[in-house]
Design goal:
heterodimer, A: alpha/beta, Rossmann fold, globular, B: alpha+beta, Bacterial polysaccharide co-polymerase-like, four-stranded antiparallel beta sheet, 13 helices, 5 strands, rod-shaped
């Protein structure tokens, strides 16, 4: 399915919605007062603020960044991604980029944090980049049980999940690397993990941080198992030919959208004003 | 998926500038600072200028034709003589224009003066450069304004001096030349006159001007000749007639008296009769023989019959008349001969005329030309004489200093504003060029529009560059060092500016 197909589909559904031909119940609506919390308790690992700040992770205490416009940008990303996911009843979203260093892990983390901040969804972020696991590193944590151990069958799915003290955000990841990530991803354990998550949580949104498309075949192995893919493009870093090849590879899969990272696009006055407001409110809190 | 390649719009260009602003922002001030530095570090050169005008003659041209020439020709002539190394060496000996160059010889300095001097035609009023003008500005460049003025004064003096000398030489040279020419010409005219006189003497009758006269004279001579011939014929007839008449008339009244032949014949007849009848010794025979002898002797001694005086009056009348006619005839014949001579002479002259005419025309033409030349030269000689007088009295065409050299207060070069503006322009061009070059050689995705073109869909969101503390520190450091470098550069340039202005 190409991007245009996906867009066509989304457009059709929107039109159907406007005509009233589609049942409102088909689209998961956020429940009033937030989603039902997960009953289970997960081990909690506190993130390291310095590491987060260095890695540009927008945890609530992070003040080192130009947070106003950054938060606004991620809010926009969150809203549009969630809209598409709801419209298409997607629950799993792979996040990848053509090459390394283009910000897919940062985007995945910040998007997950942003979704969790919305208080409507339980969001699970699984770091599947077992060649270069970054999520835990960025948070400055070492998870109780690494995800590689789950894929190798050493531990159960429920055991690799942990929280970092932020409501509605559950993570799985690790710091270990493996040379057999592709085989591990193809083993069927991933479905087990996803099923477990669906069992534990009500209407979970699962974000999967995948390795770069052009580096390994991990994405190609994983893509059939996820609903849609968010492609992260870094301005001034992603090469045009690389993007073209990535789009060719992605042509068979559903593309949730393309986002531009490290953008120099003009920020509107609205962002700046909001930023000022944010600084005031964060200073007062 | 692939959209049509778009031509870059103005907003695209602005987008590029917005993205690559550090290139022009850094390169432009750098170039500007370098330009300012160069503009003020370059040693100042002062220019002293003077303007000389070629003043026309005080006496109008219509009155005295002086040896005028085009202003630039005169100027070039003088300039060639002033700007020789020899005359400039003199100048350098008087004033050393480059005291800081101790090693340089006088000739080298003279050459430097020559190359530091420039001349341009200017408008005498506005002093603006002009293509055609009779005023000239002389400029001399020197690092020292006072020396520039001093040298300029010397150069101007040289110009005026040489101009005066050149004018004098020109005037006297013209006069001398014209004088020798006029002498030569008068010589040749004299020669020609002599040749003409000789020619006229030789071919006087055949000269073209005698032609009509010759024709008329020939005609008259022919008529006279014809008339004379007719007269001669008449007179000859009359003579014949008279001769006949005379022969018929006996000269004497006794017809036999003088007829000796009849007497002789009678005597011979008698003798023959006597000899038949007598012997030779017969006295009759002898007598007859003696008589014959006597008669023969007599006729021999006196052959003219006039011996026998004619006494017949008729005969005498006719004879007299015949004599008169014969005299008339001989007179007429003489006149005819003379007329014939005349005819011969005139016709010969007419035959010669064409050749003589050609030669004569040649001579006359040469003579006329020589005369015209002579007149011309004489006129010019008079004018040259006058011109010489004009030059002597400083009334002729001459160089006048209309703007004496003044001490410059502002350096002529470097053109500081020009260099600074150039640096600014160059900086802008280099900065924008660098930005464009970097943009063009950038293989990465740039901007939402770029992304849309590549993916065929609009992006879902754009996240700006997030700066963490490290980034901010790096950025601060980078801009800080740039600020320090530029600050230092500004201080250095300011020092140079202040140093140059002091």
């Amino acid at each position: 399915m190409t991007i245009q197909d996906a867009l066509e589909k989304a457009k059709r559904q929107r039109q159907a919605l406007q005509r009233g031909g589609l049942h409102l119940t088909e689209i998961p609506r956020p429940e009033p007062g937030g989603s039902r919390p997960i009953e289970r308790e997960f081990p909690r690992v506190d993130y390291d603020l310095d590491a987060c700040e260095a890695a540009r992770i927008l945890v609530p205490e992070n003040t080192s960044l130009d947070v106003g416009s950054a938060l606004a940008a991620y809010r926009m990303l969150r809203t549009r991604v969630l809209h598409r996911m709801r419209a298409n009843r997607w629950t799993t979203l792979a996040i990848t980029s053509p090459g390394p260093g283009e910000g897919k892990s940062v985007t995945a983390l910040n998007l997950a944090l942003s979704i969790a901040r919305e208080k409507n969804n339980n969001v699970f972020l699984i770091d599947l980049d077992m060649n270069n696991p970054s999520v835990c590193r960025y948070l400055g944590i070492e998870p109780p049980r690494g995800i590689v151990r789950f894929f190798t069958g050493e531990v159960e799915a429920e055991d690799v999940l942990f929280t970092i003290g932020i409501d509605r955000l559950v993570l799985a990841g690790g710091v270990e690397t493996t040379a057999f990530s592709s085989e591990l991803l193809a083993s069927g354990r991933l479905e087990l993990l996803l099923d477990t998550i669906r069992r534990i949580a009500h209407q979970p949104l699962v974000l999967l941080d995948l390795p770069p498309v052009l580096s390994t075949d991990d994405f190609l192995v994983t893509a059939p198992r996820v609903d849609a893919t968010l492609l992260v493009i870094a301005e001034g870093r992603t090469r045009r030919d690389g993007l073209q090849r990535t789009l060719d590879l992605l042509s068979g899969f559903t593309l949730a959208g393309v986002m531009l990272n490290r953008s120099h696009e003009r920020v509107t006055d609205y962002y700046s004003r909001h930023y000022a407001y944010y600084r005031q409110s964060s200073a007062s809190s | 998926m692939e959209s049509e390649p778009r031509l870059p719009t103005l907003s695209d260009r602005l987008e590029v500038l917005r993205r690559r602003w550090p290139y022009p922002a850094l390169i432009m001030p750098a170039c500007l600072l370098i330009a300012i530095f160069i503009a003020f570090v370059l040693p100042p050169i002062y220019r002293s200028s003077a303007t000389i005008i070629l003043e026309p003659s005080a006496v109008p041209k219509e009155f005295v034709q002086t040896a005028t020439s085009y202003a630039d020709q005169q100027f070039e002539l003088v300039q060639r003589r002033v700007m020789t190394t020899d005359s400039l060496v003199e100048l350098v000996r008087k004033i050393d224009p480059y005291p800081h160059l101790r090693g340089a010889s006088e000739r080298e300095k003279a050459r430097m003066v020559s190359s530091a001097t420039s001349i341009e035609r200017v408008d005498p009023v506005t002093l603006e450069t002009l293509a055609q003008s009779n005023a000239f500005s002389i400029h001399y460049h020197n690092p020292d304004p006072k020396l520039a003025t001093a040298v300029m004064e010397q150069i101007v003096a040289l110009f005026l001096d040489y101009n005066r000398r050149t004018r004098r030489e020109l005037a006297s040279g013209t006069y001398r030349f014209l004088l020798s020419e006029s002498r030569k010409l008068s010589e040749s005219i004299r020669e020609m006159e002599a040749r003409l006189a000789e020619f006229k003497a030789k071919y006087g009758d055949a000269l073209p001007e005698a032609q009509t006269r010759n024709l008329a004279a020939l005609d008259a001579a022919r008529q006279e000749y014809d008339a004379l011939q007719a007269q001669i014929r008449l007179v000859e007839q009359r003579e014949e007639l008279l001769r006949l008449q005379l022969s018929e008339v006996p000269p004497t009244l006794v017809a036999a008296v003088s007829d000796q032949r009849l007497q002789l014949a009678q005597l011979r007849a008698e003798l023959a009769e006597a000899e038949k009848r007598y012997t030779p010794e017969h006295p009759d025979v002898r007598r007859l023989r003696r008589a014959i002898q006597t008669l023969i002797e007599e006729s021999r001694n006196n052959p003219d019959r006039s011996t026998v005086k004619p006494d017949n009056p008729e005969y005498l009348r006719i004879s007299t008349e015949l004599d008169a006619v014969r005299r008339e005839l001989s007179a007429l014949r003489a006149r005819a001969a003379r007329a014939q001579q005349q005819i011969d002479r005139y016709s010969r002259s007419l035959e010669l005329a064409p050749n003589v005419e050609r030669e004569y025309a040649q001579l006359a033409r040469d003579y006329e030309i020589a005369q015209a030349q002579f007149r011309d030269i004489q006129n010019r000689l008079k004018e040259a004489d006058l011109a010489q007088a004009l030059v002597e009295e400083e009334q002729g065409e001459r160089f006048t200093l209309i703007r004496p050299p003044s001490t410059p207060t502002e350096p002529y070069s470097p053109n500081r504003l020009g260099i600074i503006l150039l640096g600014l322009l160059l900086g802008a061009a280099l900065g924008i060029g660098a930005a464009m070059l970097v943009e063009m050689s950038d293989p990465t995705v740039r901007g939402a529009r770029d992304l849309q073109e590549l993916t065929g869909t609009s992006m879902i969101a754009a996240v700006p560059v997030l700066l963490n503390r490290e980034d901010q520190r790096l950025r601060r450091f980078r801009w800080g060092s740039i600020a320090v470098i530029y600050g230092l550069a500004i201080i250095i340039v300011s020092a140079a500016v202040v140093g140059a202005s002091a």
